[in-house]
Design goal:
- With 166 residues, the protein is α+β, with helices and mostly antiparallel strands.
- It contains six helices and six strands, in the order αββαβββαβααα.
- The chain has one domain.
- 36% of the residues lie in helices and 23% in strands.
- It has a six-stranded antiparallel sheet, sandwiched between helices.
- The chain is globular.
- 37% of the residues are buried.
């Protein structure tokens, strides 16, 4: 692991996958490298079975999160704060995948980028998810926990976080 990779990995709060099989949600941790490299994250999510596409949730430096949904070759992404791309290789990779320009260094406005409708078919509308991303008083783990709760796997998410962060 290079110094840059180690620095990126140190900034990761957690990375989890959530998938639904036979009507039941399962939440599991992802390997550290999956949280620092978008292509590795997508490959890791594609390996898991799911009826609705596998969700990936990555919290970085208590500052922003990436929400990914992989179903076959179809990849949908949401970056909670486009400004994170000025410092985070993962956030930059998300913007590149979305074919969006990098943010200005002097733009301090928190703004999501990507697919706000990423989980609309699972019960959380684009408007609701956008409002959650705009809530500046919440940390990424709190927003991701709320997303998990609304989608029906809040308990599994909380249990996984408790064990991963213990």
């Amino acid at each position: 692991m290079s110094a840059l990779d180690a620095e990126s990995a140190a900034a990761i709060d957690f990375a989890v996958a959530a998938y639904r099989e036979d009507g039941e949600w399962t939440v599991s941790t992802l390997p550290p490298r999956a949280a620092t490299e978008l292509d590795v994250l997508v490959r890791a999510l594609a390996q898991l079975p799911s009826e609705v596409g596998t969700l990936g949730m990555v919290s970085v430096d208590e500052d922003f999160f990436v929400l990914a949904r992989v179903s076959g070759r179809h990849v949908r992404l949401l970056l909670s704060d486009v400004g994170a791309a000025t410092e985070s290789p993962l956030a930059r990779a998300v913007l590149q995948h979305l074919e969006l320009p990098p943010p200005d260094d002097d733009d301090d406005q928190i703004q999501p980028a990507g697919d706000l409708g990423i989980v609309a078919d699972l019960g959380l509308s684009a408007t609701q998810l956008g409002a959650m991303c705009d809530e500046v008083d919440l940390y990424p783990d709190e927003v991701l926990g709320e997303i998990a709760e609304r989608l029906g796997f809040g308990r599994q998410f909380d249990d996984m976080l408790d064990s991963a962060l213990a």
